[in-house]
């Protein structure tokens, strides 16, 4: 497909898969798709894989031989006739933190939202090229987006807990899709809250409303809710922009712990945050991926003049 | 903040250049004093390094402020780090020049002795290296920085020659022992200055490329 011409059809017009002759997606395709939950905390539980918190692993240790979690090849995207992304190719490494930076309107959030098909809700949004999760096409028509969003969780700019108890927020996805015993559900909620570094603060008031928590606690609750359904990837769209410095520090520390278990992609306007939390940084400008490298390289010796000018605050 | 940061980084570099010019002038003076026996010049170098010390402290404080408040990255970060390192190196060079000036005065007040050519050559070679550092700070060029690192080898060789001369001179005339030790001490200071110049060249390579070439790394 000519990436310069808006495609006539929705994302399903893209090639169905990478090296998959049948073009089917057993991991994502289920015949009876469930309705999606009201937030980025996706539904469905498979195996409730919640990590325990260990010592933080250094960026260098994580920068080992990389396996890719999400791969884009010549990926383009449009809103109607406006081309938002221009033929970008990128490998998002497994269990590392990748930061997307760039001025407003550069396409970083658009790209993030394709990774779990949040853009499906925008009628004019279209895409072309390849975008895969674990080697399987994210954009194929056959993909069960509910299952996709379970595997690719999302945390938004503003904390958006459900108007329910703390316990029910975390248990929401599991209750929707799995018959779990009360004891198993209790365990799952505790593990998820521990993994989100929130357990000690809320263990005595699990039945209290989530809306009574502070902003930072609410955001960690949303992270707990996202990881309770056992995702592989966590997308974070400016997760700290509505938080105070102390809550921001708590979330940033949490991110580095979570990266031991999950692949994390974070969009941020806070350059220091990108420098602090990420292993790799991608700089977007006007819908193009200008530079993508180790975060240390981007912030000490970027190869591209535009990147240098952006990270040093000379534009944007 | 970012616009301010950029303006202050320009000032920071200018201030380091000013400090470098002062240090270079002190090195040139001490070399001239060594060649000519001009004790007045030597005395001036010996006593007047407060200006360099003051510049050093001011530059260091400004680097700290910019790191803390401006959080520079990429080229800005490399420049602030380079200035921080080089200001310390320049201060050290000025200190060494002061030490050499002291020895010049001491020798002039002791036994009459002819300064060996190897020490004079060493002084000239070191002065040229210091000058080259300042020129490269004004206009960094990668190839010239790499060459400057190599120039240190000649100074090392001359230092060995001064060592041999000193040992022989003590054998030749035991009354020259103190003077020979003073000459050796001067040689060691020039050798140290040349070492600092290679470090400064490495700092400038870091500024240009973001690569750290320490301890002979290529």
Description:
The complex is a heterodimer of chains A (316) and B (218). Helix content of chain A is 30%, strand content 21%. Chain A has helices at residues 59-62, 108-114, 145-151, 166-177, 182-195, 199-202, 215-227, 245-258, 271-277, 295-300, 305-311, and strands spanning 68-79, 82-93, 97-101, 125-133, 136-137, 152-155, 233-237, 263-267, 280-285, 288-294. The relative contact order of chain A is 0.19. The model of chain A is unreliable at 1-64 (pLDDT under 50). By secondary structure, chain B is an all-alpha fold. Chain B has one domain (3-209): Phosphate transport system protein phou homolog 2, domain 2 (Methane Monooxygenase Hydroxylase, Chain G, domain 1), CATH 1.20.58. Helices cover 85% and strands 0% of the residues of chain B. In chain B, helix 1 (2-36) runs antiparallel to helix 2 and helix 1 (2-36) runs antiparallel to helix 5 (117-138). The mean pLDDT of chain B is 93. The chains are: A alpha/beta (316), B mainly alpha (218). At the A-B interface, helix 9, helix 10 and helix 11 of A face helix 1 and helix 4 of B.
Q: What's the topology here?
A:
The complex is a heterodimer of chains A (316) and B (218).
Chain A (H helix, E strand, L loop, with lengths): L58 H4 L5 E12 L2 E12 L3 E5 L6 H7 L10 E9 L2 E2 L7 H7 E4 L10 H12 L4 H14 L3 H4 L12 H13 L5 E5 L7 H14 L4 E5 L3 H7 L2 E6 L2 E7 H6 L4 H7 L5
Parallel strand pairs in A: 3-8, 3-9, 6-7, 7-8
Antiparallel strand pairs in A: 1-2, 1-4, 4-5, 9-10
Chain B lengths: L1 H35 L2 H9 L2 H21 L3 H35 L8 H22 L3 H31 L4 H33 L9
Helix pairs in contact in B: 1-2, 1-3, 1-4, 1-5, 2-4, 3-4, 4-7, 5-6, 5-7, 6-7
């Amino acid at each position: 497909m000519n990436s310069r011409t808006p495609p006539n059809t929705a994302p399903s017009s893209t090639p169905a898969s990478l090296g998959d002759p049948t073009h089917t997606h057993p991991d994502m395709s289920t015949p009876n798709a469930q309705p999606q939950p009201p937030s980025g905390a996706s539904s469905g539980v498979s195996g409730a894989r919640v990590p325990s918190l260990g010592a933080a692993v250094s960026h260098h240790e994580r920068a080992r031989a990389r396996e890719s979690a999400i791969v884009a090849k010549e990926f383009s995207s449009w809103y109607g006739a406006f081309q938002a992304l221009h033929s970008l190719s990128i490998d998002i490494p497994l269990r590392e933190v990748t930061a997307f930076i760039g001025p407003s309107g550069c396409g970083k959030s658009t790209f993030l939202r394709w990774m779990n098909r949040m853009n499906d809700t925008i009628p004019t949004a279209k895409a072309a090229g390849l975008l895969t999760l674990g080697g399987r096409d994210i954009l194929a028509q056959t993909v069960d987006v509910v299952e996709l969003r379970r595997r690719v969780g999302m945390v938004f700019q503003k904390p958006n807990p459900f108007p329910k108890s703390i316990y029910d927020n975390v248990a929401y996805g599991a209750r929707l899709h799995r018959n779990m015993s009360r004891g198993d559900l209790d365990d799952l909620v505790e593990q998820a809250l521990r993994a989100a570094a929130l357990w000690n603060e809320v263990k005595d008031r699990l039945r209290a409303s989530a809306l009574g928590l502070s902003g930072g606690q609410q955001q960690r609750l949303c992270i707990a809710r996202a990881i309770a359904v056992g995702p592989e990837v966590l997308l974070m769209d400016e997760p700290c922009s509505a938080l105070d410095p102390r809550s921001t520090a708590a979330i940033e520390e949490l991110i580095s712990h979570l990266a031991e278990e999950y692949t994390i992609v974070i969009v941020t306007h806070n350059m220091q945050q990108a420098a602090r939390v990420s292993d790799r940084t991608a700089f977007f400008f006007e819908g193009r991926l200008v530079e993508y490298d180790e975060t240390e390289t981007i912030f000490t010796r970027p190869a591209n003049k535009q990147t240098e000018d952006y990270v040093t605050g000379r534009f944007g | 903040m970012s616009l301010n940061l950029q303006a202050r980084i320009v000032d920071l570099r200018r201030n380091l250049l000013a400090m470098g010019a002062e240090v270079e002038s002190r090195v040139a003076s001490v070399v001239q004093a060594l060649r000519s026996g001009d004790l007045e010049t030597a005395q001036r170098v010996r006593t007047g390094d407060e200006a360099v010390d003051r510049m050093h402290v001011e530059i260091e404080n400004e680097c700290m402020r910019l790191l803390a408040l401006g959080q520079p990255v990429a080229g800005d970060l490399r420049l602030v780090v380079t200035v921080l390192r080089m200001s310390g190196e320049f201060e050290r060079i000025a200190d060494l020049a002061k030490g050499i000036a002291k020895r010049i005065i001491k020798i002039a007040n002791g036994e009459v002795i002819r300064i060996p050519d190897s020490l004079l050559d060493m002084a000239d070679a070191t002065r040229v290296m210091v000058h080259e550092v300042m020129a490269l700070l004004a206009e960094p060029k990668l190839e010239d920085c790499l060459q400057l690192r190599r120039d240190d080898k000649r100074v090392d060789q001359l230092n060995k020659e001064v060592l041999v001369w000193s040992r022989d001179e003590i054998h030749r005339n035991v009354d020259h022992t103190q003077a020979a030790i003073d000459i050796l001490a001067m040689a060691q200071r020039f050798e140290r200055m040349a070492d600092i110049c290679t470090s400064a060249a490495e700092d400038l390579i870091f500024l240009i490329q973001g690569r750290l070439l320490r301890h002979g790394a290529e």
